[in-house]
Design goal:
The complex is a heterodimer of chains A (416) and B (356). Chain A folds into two domains: 94 residues, no CATH class; 220 residues, MetI-like fold (Orthogonal Bundle), CATH 1.10.3720. Chain A is 68% helix and 1% strand. Chain A is mainly α and 416 residues long. In chain A, helix 1 packs across helix 18. Chain B is of the alpha/beta class and 356 residues long. Chain B folds into two domains: 187 residues, Periplasmic binding protein-like II (D-Maltodextrin-Binding Protein, domain 2, 3-Layer(aba) Sandwich); 158 residues, Periplasmic binding protein-like II (D-Maltodextrin-Binding Protein, domain 2). Chain B has 14 helices and ten strands. In chain B, strands 1, 2, 3, 4, 5, 6, 7, 8, 9 and 10 form a ten-stranded mixed sheet that branches. In chain B, strand 1, helix 2 and strand 2 form a beta-alpha-beta unit. The N and C termini of chain B lie far apart (73 Å). The chains are: A mainly alpha (416), B alpha/beta (356).
Chain lengths: 416, 356
């Protein structure tokens, strides 16, 4: 006679089986989580936080808002379009006097100077005299410099009175303040960022393509040679990979400059004459050559690891069934290497888009990329504009990645 | 044995504490070398404080980055005038009280001894340097003599070198186009003037190599990569006199300005840094530096003490930017202009450079 079990299943110690399982699983999950905590913290600290900070910086600049509280309050109370009254001028003069005491007129002027050039000395000059100014303040300020009456300046101050701003993005897409203060497209001579932005993507595409052309045969050779020979060749691929980037780039300068090795050999061979030495460096050509070389291993390695897994018997089978060698390559071999091509291309392209040291060294005037502008503004201490430009690059790369995922599928990517 | 070890460790620790190093950031190459010889070595000999030298293409942005990040690793930095003013305005520099600087040997107070404008709230000038252009005498035996020749590819064919940046280039371009030195900044303040400067640069754009570090132009000349290049005058002097390179300097159209020592806010060894600044801007130290590189001392009292180059035979006088003969058509760089227009004109310059 058997007892009919009713109710939930129990474990040996009498707890419900479901609950015991949940506890055990929770413990396993906790252990797994603890294992990845160091990595998570690392990624958070070195990646998410700096990028977040950068994005914040591109929208934020308190150089003016923190130094001109009175004027900021007036802007707050009087919406855009209202007349600039004596009250506003008096708030401005009070702020200027305080700036002079705190030694901050340069800081305030710098913020306004980002969208209205020539204002740093305007602020300094007025701040020096602000203490002694008598009402009416409008006339007093205009007597120092009539630029204080410009609508452009007031529009810039209104925008800067809040620490949060889109000013830097306007500048990053080549917009300038017109006389009335509104942003509009800059003249042809002033526009640079969008042009360079597009050029960077085109050049990166060219570099990715040349990398692919050069890497494909090499990777194929490496994958099909016997192990002993292929490891020797592999070292030749890896050796430059392990060499410092700067050493490789400066070597290209030595090789390619007009009095350099390549030109001298060509002259010695009589292929070109001495006055017709080729210009291969300090221009766009230099950037493409040097960057292709620097990024080549990133294409060879994924291609190699994918090609090694392709059994040679497939192509042999195709040939034995009557395919020409071209058809066998195109219909049988090439499709199987696609995951490697995709991985290598994505890797090289994304690295190329953000490259700056190689173009800075060998790019001359027309071989500069977008990142060189970011570096330039970092060096010129306009960090907010640098951040805005970097954010544009980041968004573009994310969009490309998303497109790639939609069209090809990120799970098809194979690094080996 | 163990006791000896402990003892020696303790002693070393004491020694380190007593001799905090001063870290000085400067522009590298022959210029840093001259500072090491004239300032660092005598300072260490006099005080026992070691001086560590760090190179940079331009120390000013590095100082800003350090102060903003709250991680200042240099005690003294060598910067250009406009940068010294800007950093001081942004509250990133320690103030330097001019009355604490050593007086001239005859007792003249430092404030009166330095050249006009050489002292600011946060910075002390050490030298007057100049952007000039120089050429390879083997390429042009009948060399160029005026700034207009630099922009004349027909008369003097060959590649040119220029600093990648707006400052000094635009002024030289205007002088090349015939604008008198006294009117350069007035003209450059107008949109037409800027267009005019860029039109002049357009003439040589296709044949120009752009340099960034001060050590590059002598190298470009020596490699035969350029026939003529703008450069800091001391670099060309060092290459021509010390290394015997066939370079000649053209002083016509030179743009000169001060270089200054500043102390970043939060410098780890503030006291020693101030000590160093005072020591190295004394009459004798400034005069000594001119023994190593052809930059003019910023003190009047140093002038008469400047004698021969370290080789013992070259008279330094004629190589100084401030020598009478070199000031014929010379422009004093205007920091007021560049403080206001640096961002705008460099943006325009970059756009010009990137376009074809």
């Amino acid at each position: 006679m058997t007892e009919v079990v009713s109710g939930p299943l129990l474990t040996a110690d009498g707890r419900p089986l479901k609950a015991a399982l949940a506890t055990a699983q929770a413990r396993a999950r906790r252990r797994a989580f603890l294992l990845v905590v160091p990595l998570l913290a690392f990624v958070l600290i070195t990646f998410v936080v700096p990028i977040g900070y950068m994005l914040k910086r591109s929208f934020e600049h308190d150089g003016f808002s923190s130094t001109a509280p009175n004027l900021a309050a007036w802007f707050e109370a009087n919406p855009e379009g209202s007349e600039i009254t004596e009250e506003a001028y008096s708030a401005l003069v009070a702020d200027l006097a305080q700036m002079q005491k705190d030694k901050t007129p340069g800081q305030a002027g710098t913020r306004i100077n980002y969208t209205v050039p020539g204002t740093i000395s305007l602020f300094k000059g007025a701040a020096r005299k602000a203490e002694d100014m008598q009402p009416p303040f409008k006339e007093a300020l205009l007597a120092v410099d009539k630029e204080w009456g410009e609508p452009k300046l007031w529009a810039a101050m209104r925008d800067a009175a809040s620490p949060y701003t889109t000013d830097f993005y306007h500048v990053a897409v080549d917009q300038k303040r017109a006389e009335d203060g509104a942003f509009q497209r800059g003249t042809d001579k002033e526009r640079i960022y969008l042009y360079l932005f597009i050029k960077t993507f085109i050049l990166s595409g060219v570099i990715t393509f040349t990398c692919l052309l050069l890497a494909f045969p090499v990777a194929h050779l490496l994958a099909t040679l016997p192990m002993s020979k292929s490891s020797l060749l592999m070292i030749l691929v890896l050796l430059p990979f392990w060499t410092s980037l700067l050493v490789r780039t400066t070597s290209w300068i030595v090789l390619l400059q007009q009095q350099g090795v390549v030109n001298s050999i060509l002259v010695a061979m009589g292929l070109i004459d001495d006055s017709g030495r080729l210009v291969m460096i300090n221009n766009q050509t230099g950037t493409i050559i040097a960057m292709t070389h620097v990024l080549l291993p990133f294409m060879i390695l994924p291609l190699f690891s994918v090609m090694r897994t392709i059994p040679p018997s497939y192509v042999r089978a195709a040939r034995s069934l009557g395919a020409t060698s071209w058809t066998a390559f195109r219909r049988v071999y090439l499709p199987q290497t696609l995951p490697g091509i995709a991985a290598g291309s994505l890797l090289v392209f994304i690295l190329a888009v953000g490259y700056y040291i190689t173009p800075a060294l060998v790019g001359g005037a027309d071989g500069q990329l977008f990142s060189n502008m970011i570096q330039f503004h970092m060096a010129k201490a306009n960090w907010s504009l640098a951040a805005a430009l970097a954010a544009m690059l980041l968004v573009a790369v994310i969009v490309l990645y998303w497109l790639y995922d939609r069209l090809i599928g990120i799970d098809r990517l194979k690094l080996g | 044995m163990k006791r000896i070890l402990t003892l020696s460790t303790a002693l070393t620790a004491v020694a380190f504490a007593a001799h905090a190093d001063v870290t000085v950031m400067s522009w590298g190459g022959a210029y840093t070398q001259s500072q090491v010889e004239a300032y660092h070595k005598p300072f260490t000999a006099a005080t026992g404080i070691n001086v560590v030298s760090v190179d940079s293409d331009n120390p000013a942005p590095a100082v800003k980055a350090m102060v903003e990040a709250g991680n200042v690793t240099v005690d003294v930095a060598d910067v250009e005038y406009a940068d010294a003013i800007r950093l001081c305005d942004d509250g990133m520099l320690e103030e330097i009280d001019a009355s604490t600087l050593p007086p001239a040997p005859d007792g003249t107070a430092a404030v009166d001894d330095f050249l006009p404008g050489a002292l600011t709230d946060c910075a002390v000038s050490t030298i007057v340097f100049s952007t000039v252009f120089a050429y390879d005498t083997t390429k042009f035996p009948e060399g160029p003599t005026t700034i207009a020749d630099f922009f004349d590819l027909e008369k003097f064919p060959g590649k040119r070198g220029m600093r990648k940046g707006a400052k000094a280039n635009l002024e030289m371009a205007l002088m090349g186009a015939g604008v008198p030195a006294a009117e350069v900044y007035e003209v450059l303040g107008t949109p037409e003037g800027v267009d005019k400067a860029f039109a002049e640069l357009d003439k040589i754009k296709a044949d120009t190599i752009w340099w960034e570090a001060g050590a590059q132009p002598p190298q470009l000349l020596a490699d035969g990569e350029v026939a003529m290049t703008t450069a800091y005058n001391g670099r060309i002097f060092a290459a021509a006199v010390a290394e015997g390179k066939p370079f000649n300097t053209v002083w016509d159209g030179q743009v000169y300005e001060y270089d200054l020592f500043v102390v970043p806010k939060g410098a780890p060894n503030l006291e020693q840094a101030m000590e160093f600044v005072k020591f190295s801007t004394s009459t004798q130290a400034l005069a000594d530096q001119a023994k190593w590189i052809s930059y003019g001392p910023a003190r009047k009292s140093s002038g008469p003490l400047v004698g021969l180059y370290q080789d013992g035979k070259t008279e330094m006088g004629p190589y100084m930017p401030t020598a009478e003969a070199n000031l014929g058509n010379a422009l004093a760089s205007s920091y007021e202009f560049w403080v206001d227009h640096d961002a705008e004109l460099n943006e325009r310059f970059n756009a010009w450079l990137a376009s074809n």
